[in-house]
Write a structure and sequence with these properties.
The protein is mainly beta. It has 3 domains: about 1-5 and about 30-120, Immunoglobulin-like (Sandwich); about 120-230, Immunoglobulins (Immunoglobulin-like), CATH 2.60.40.10; about 240-420, Sandwich (Immunoglobulin-like), CATH 2.60.40. It is built from 4 helices and 26 strands. The protein has helices at about 1-15, 315-320, 360-370, 405-410, and strands spanning about 30-35, 45-50, 50-55, 65-70, 70-80, 90-95, 100-105, 110-120, 130-135, 145, 150-160, 165-170, 170-175, 175-180, 185-190, 190-195, 200-205, 215-220, 240-245, 260-265, 270-275, 285-290, 325-330, 355-360, 385, 410-420. The strands form 6 sheets. Strands 23-22-25-26-19-20-21-24 form an 8-stranded antiparallel beta sheet. Strand 7 (about 100-105) and strand 8 (about 110-120) form a beta hairpin. The protein is elongated, with a radius of gyration of 25 Å. The structure holds copper (II) ion.
């Protein structure tokens, strides 16, 4: 059975890698695993954007991490072999690169729902073990986890659908579970051995009031020397910058545009990535980072940027706060050409953008120097803009744009200030 499951998984991955989003350069995927913790549900299949990624996941089971191209996903869970029409859980999540996620498919008696948690899968301190706990028991109160028989809490008041991570000295442990603040033991785990430098997930699943459904399962996430197998550690020389994109001009967008822009500097290579959703679907969206040529810090435009009070913050009105358009995020950023047709097209439906491009730092810096007199990338002083609304959106004449470009194309719909994170 285990072998069959792995073959099915490999097939699912092959299918998944043929998704359009995978045709972009994606050096570091998002990593998703699923806990089937819905005791009222049968064995399940899991779909991402309509493509099966897991088959026949049994109640109580925790899948391995699946590598997915970063982006916006609709995840659906169906009874095994039932097909998408019978999905009993549907959720939309943005999965970003080089991040581990656990999707808990949980249930109350009536409802099944999904909760997505970000996992820390970094190596624990030497000699310690990393232990993650998930509480997916709908009829249990928030719980304390104690060293068995001692009353000593290692974790307090973990609520339903909550998760927590501990590091503990390697060794063998037995835990008592009690309602938060109560001495009454409702469950004692079997002895659990934690090896030095390994990572584990403990999942409490089932219904407390239905004997035979309740239990705690231990799963090995990684063995020493740790997470490198699934998420290669960045090289020491790498510098990473991120901009959290927040919506702008939402009165004219069907849904708010949100996402993340990421800039990774490694040697002469700058990797540019944008993962966003909520853009007007099926149309190309201009995206750039903007900034000042005189060393001033760029910021996203505040509400008062709407100088002519027409209710829109147009491209021209951003300039006092953000400076000018510096680098286009399209097929050839070092060209600095703004008006070209190689910006990403938002997915239909959902309006997702998954953009990744590498550029030579040298080439980009010399272009910025000769065009704008800027000697340095100074990413921390820049802001990222996504532009473009429905081409048929009704905009007043007061909304300004680039010469000969409709305002619907250049109206900013999301902005984020770049910060260094690594
Ligand atoms: Cu721009």
């Amino acid at each position: 059975m285990h072998h069959v499951y792995r073959v099915a998984l490999a097939l699912a991955l092959l299918i998944l890698l043929s998704l359009p989003a995978a045709s972009l350069a994606q050096p570091q995927p998002a990593l998703l695993r699923v806990i089937h913790a819905a005791p009222t549900a049968p064995a399940v299949d899991v779909y991402a954007n309509g493509v099966p990624i897991l088959r026949n996941l049994a109640f109580f089971a925790l899948s391995e991490y699946l590598a997915l191209p970063p982006g916006q996903y609709t995840i659906q869970v169906t009874p095994a072999n039932a097909g998408l029409d019978d999905a009993f859980l549907t959720g939309g999540w943005l999965l970003t690169n080089n991040t581990h996620y656990t999707l808990m498919a949980v249930s109350t008696i009536e409802n099944v729902g999904g909760v997505l948690e970000i996992d820390n899968q970094n190596a624990p301190p030497p000699g310690q073990a990393r232990v993650k706990l998930y509480h997916t028991v709908p009829d249990a109160p928030p719980i304390d986890v104690k060293l068995a028989g001692t009353g000593t809490s290692v974790l307090r008041a973990l609520p339903f659908t909550g998760s927590a991570a501990l590091t503990v000295p390697a060794g063998t442990y037995q835990f008592d579970i009690t309602p938060a603040g109560s001495p009454t033991v409702i469950y004692t785990t079997p002895p659990l051995r934690f090896e030095p430098d390994w990572g584990y997930t403990l999942t409490a699943v089932g219904f407390l009031e239905q004997p035979g459904t309740f239990g705690v399962r231990s799963h090995v996430d990684f063995t020493a020397p740790a997470a490198a197998a699934t998420a290669p550690a960045p090289q020491a020389a790498e510098r990473v910058y991120v901009a959290e994109l927040r919506p702008l001009n939402t009165s004219v967008t069907e849904q708010p545009a949100t996402g993340t822009a990421r800039f990774t500097l490694s040697g002469d290579t700058l990797t540019l990535q944008v993962n966003a959703q909520g853009l007007y679907p099926g149309t190309m969206h201009l995206q750039h980072y903007h900034g000042f040529v005189d060393g001033q810090d760029a910021t996203c435009p505040p509400a008062v940027a709407d100088a002519n009070s027409d209710g829109f913050i147009d491209l021209v009105e951003t300039q006092p706060f953000t400076g000018i358009t510096l680098v286009p995020l399209h097929d050839d950023p070092a060209s600095l050409e703004i008006q070209v047709p190689t910006y990403p097209i938002a997915g239909d439906p959902g309006g997702a953008i998954n953009y990744a491009q590498t550029v030579s730092v040298n080439a980009l810096e010399s272009a910025l120097l000769s065009t704008h007199g800027i000697a340095d990338l100074a990413l921390e002083q820049r802001t990222v803009f996504l532009h473009g609304v429905n081409p048929n959106a009704n905009l007043p004449e007061s909304v300004q744009s680039l010469p000969n470009v409709p305002a619907q194309v250049t109206l900013p719909v999301a902005c984020g200030e770049i910060v260094r994170v690594q």
